[in-house]
Amino acid sequence: MTGAFSGPGRANQGMPKLPTPPTGWPIGSYDTYQEAHRAVEHLATSEFPVEEVTIVGVDLMLVERVIGRLSWPKVLGTGALSGAWFGLFVGLLLGLFNQQQASFGPILVGLGIGVVFGLVFAAVGYASTRGRGREIASATQLVAGRYDVLAQPRNAERGRDLLAKLAMRPNSGID
């Protein structure tokens, strides 16, 4: 497996089989991933060997953003909707192999059974966690406090110089 910045010059192609700390010297540090990625893009356009560059997220945080409050209507509506999609899919598959011409029976049966199963599973899941602190809907992200750009020592000084020139541009913010 290769990433966007891997290439023939990289010593170990692809992802390491075991967790491996990154190597290289820091050539830039940024508050957001977008800024770090922009810096690497600048290095690439400046003919820098980006296959020797690594972006490292430092000070990792697990951030849970609250979307809203859970309620029986929301839980049942979401369960019915997800069940309907799955039931529709199964019904369409059954309809493809149906010998009768233009029959919507398998589609409607799959849709109906999917809605019922979706409602049941959502209700059981919500009822089993009710009263134990799961009264909210949320989305979880892993984010970093800062993003360091590392380069191999043989090219680190040149990389720092290129990124310093990028930072000195009048419009050096994210486009």
From TrEMBL:
The chain crosses the membrane at residues 75-97, 103-127. The keyword Transmembrane applies. InterPro entries: GSP17M-like_dom (IPR025889). The keyword Membrane applies. Residues 1-22 are annotated as: Disordered. It holds the Pfam family YflT. Residues 27-103 form the General stress protein 17M-like domain. Keywords: Membrane, Transmembrane, Transmembrane helix. This is General stress protein 17M-like domain-containing protein. It comes from Actinokineospora auranticolor.
